Amino acid sequence: WKAFFTRCESRGQTPFPYSHSKLFGFLQSGLEARLSLGSLKSQVSALSVLFQRRIATKPQLKESLYVETSMYCNERGLAVTPQGGNTSLVGGSVPVFDEILISTALMDQVISFDDVSGALVCQAGCVLESLNQYLGERGYTMPLDLGAKGSCHIGGNLATNAGGLRLLRYGSLRGTVLGLEAVLPDGSVLDCLNSLRKDNTGYDLKQLFIGSEGTLGIITALSILCPRKPSAVNVALLGCEHFSKVLQVFTLCRDQLGEILSACEFMDSESMRMVQTHLKLINPLPDNAFYVLVETSGSCGKHDEEKLNIFLEKAIDSGFVTSGTVATNQGKIMSLWALRERITEALALDGYVFKYDLSMPVEKLYALVEETRARVGSSALGVVGYGHLGDGNLHLNITAKSHTDTLLSALEPFVYEWTSKHHGSISAEHGLGFKKRDHIYYSKSRGAVHIMQQLKQMLDPKGIMNPYKTIPPAD
Ligand code: FAD
Ligand code: MLT
Ligand code: ZN
Question: Start and end of every FAD-binding PCMH-type domain (predicted)?
């Protein structure tokens, strides 16, 4: 809270708490005098008039609205939180104190698509699934996919540098995004919206905005390189009795499936229990300690099936897998994917969830889950491990009846220290947002964070952009 007030004061602003119960509790203990609710309320209503006027006069929303809003907020020192689909898992997209929320929901137009190069140019508020549908009709696909595809915006995906289910095949957004346009806090427009695959003229400024979580400006449009839609897709769900076998399956996948491998995900028996219990999904295999979901995508069905069969034979003969099932039709493919993609949803139905998104050397992934399980014992309802095996990305989730400080102190700093000790990252793909901001030092040196603070200061000198998220304040 102290940091919060300091940040407000440095923007020349007093805070406007409207939703945070803890803050209200804190304010009741004697700090009311510092607030000027009236003045901020009138700022917010002036802004909403500005929005309504602009939307009414310009139904085809352009970045100009963001320019005006940024200028307005910058002049008055008003904090701003950009919001896309609001699917952030680290509290990045929600205003927690006095921030004004700026949504990209109405910026949902495709600007152009080049069906020779596969370069798609679109506004930031396009929903990922809608883009995929648009491209599918033209024989292309988006280079990223994630469970939240029906809600998340492509601008939000860039702002978080989302990884997802096909990073193994198509690489990170840092490679597939060709250009972007962003409105900076002072209302100026940074135009880096080109669609070139090669461009070595100076610093690559778009990279600063990829993964910046709304702290440097609002991404309003982008250009992204899309691959051809694969005409043949197969999915196999395999059961393994030990995590060492999961690793052997992964190695065999890379060896045997090579260029057609498009996803390699894993989940443990606890993850399976969650989707069975809360979503009534059916496990087509006998109970196993671990499950690996392997997807192949290519352009020749017969060739891919042959490769997959050889892989499966080897996996069974070598004793890596104890059971398995293969899907080639769309319905079964989707039901196998649901077992993996819907774990997040099932966990939320189990109780309060402590979520960790970690990357580390792949052979270490499950040791952390086992140690955590032993550590928390019966104080947790479930200790669940799943993730993007191919990317060395573990999602460790601990569910409990409710949030307790005792459980929290059993988990933190233990999980972060363990990850740091094994040279991992404490946020592989979800970002830091509000929840993990102050843990940045487990994965970044003081020197690196200092440069981030300087970059933020340069682009956002008044500190209005998502001020309580991602980058901790300078000491
Ligand atoms: P929001 O949640 O609205 O915002 C996220 C952050 O980006 C915030 O800090 C916000 O301020 C900022 N932001 C949003 N839009 C802009 C903009 N236009 N300009 C500047 N800043 C902006 N993540 C993964 O990486 N991989 C997964 O596999 C994955 N699976 C998920 C599955 C489920 C079921 C859920 C609920 C979430 C999952 N996520 C995953 C997390 C989340 O979906 C991603 O982080 C996603 O990229 C967020 O997009 P969004 O549009 O919802 O952004
Ligand atoms: C996933 O891979 O399912 C997501 O990143 C969401 C999560 O971690 O729960
Ligand atoms: Zn994930």
Answer: 42-229
